[in-house]
Amino acid sequence: MPVPARTLDGTAAADAIYDSTAVAALEFTEQHGRAPLLATVLVGEDPSSQTYVRMKRSRCRRVGIDSRAVELPASTTTAELVARITELSQDPAVDGILLQHPVPSHVDERAAFEAIAPAKDVDGVTMASYAAMAFGEPGFHSCTPGGILRLLDVNGVDPAGMHAVVVGRSPILGKPVSALLLARDATVTTCHSRTKDLADHVARADLVVAAVGKPELVRGEWIKPGAVVVDAGYHPGGIGDVDQAGAAERASWLTPVPGGVGPMTIALLLEQTVAAARRHARAAV
Length: 285
Fold this sequence. Notes:
Blueprint: E1 6-7, H1 10-32, E2 37-43, H2 47-63, E3 66-72, H3 78-90, E4 96-99, H4 109-114, H5 127-135, H6 143-154, E5 163-167, H7 174-183, E6 187-191, H8 198-203, E7 207-210, E8 228-231, H9 244-248, E9 253-254, H10 261-284
Parallel strand pairs: 1-9, 2-3, 2-4, 5-6, 5-7, 7-8, 8-9
Helix pairs in contact: 1-10, 5-7, 6-7, 6-10
Pfam family, one: THF_DHG_CYH
Pathway: One-carbon metabolism; tetrahydrofolate interconversion
Binding site for NADP(+): 168-170
């Protein structure tokens, strides 16, 4: 009988990061007389985005990070949003900036992201951060991809030498996780909507990262026995991008949905906010 996949428990790993981040935030506050500060920017009234921002602000309070909410109407133009983010980038009281994704369709999201100063890009969304990830240089990781790598690390899964197949090429998930895995010496295949024979690519993978945004696109029978499977999707009803039941029968490790990748994203965001605050303090000396 096949052995069921072991669980890559993102909730437990995130809790450990929250604990260490709380210690670091307290040390910073005691040394500098203020807490690290994360500015969250929300454009419009999308209910899911509002929920995510409230969750992130709640987690900030949990670990001793201050947060500043910047809420803009859905009618905000690209120029107005860029100007507001530029103000935050120039504000010495702000350590990190999070622009909640997605923004309204009429806004140039890339232009808004690029208005974030790289030193405050704690969500890892700028081209400067992507370049740092691609070249293995110091910088802030995109939080979900960085969370995936951290989750592998805490469970002793080393991607070096693995054939990793990433399904999805979005600029905030698929592309950066491919870059991070390549920097960690994996051999990386990035699949997307134009990829032919997706099942064949997945079947050859030692490590599968599903980040395509389509419910259960990756079927359990595609998974190579013993492969590590990271499901970065989330859809109503607790469904991911992977056929969880089928994958659990073949994979060696599998992230649950929910409770796998999701918790790691906010944990990395807050850890990187404290790191940004420390860098700003050192630069000001």
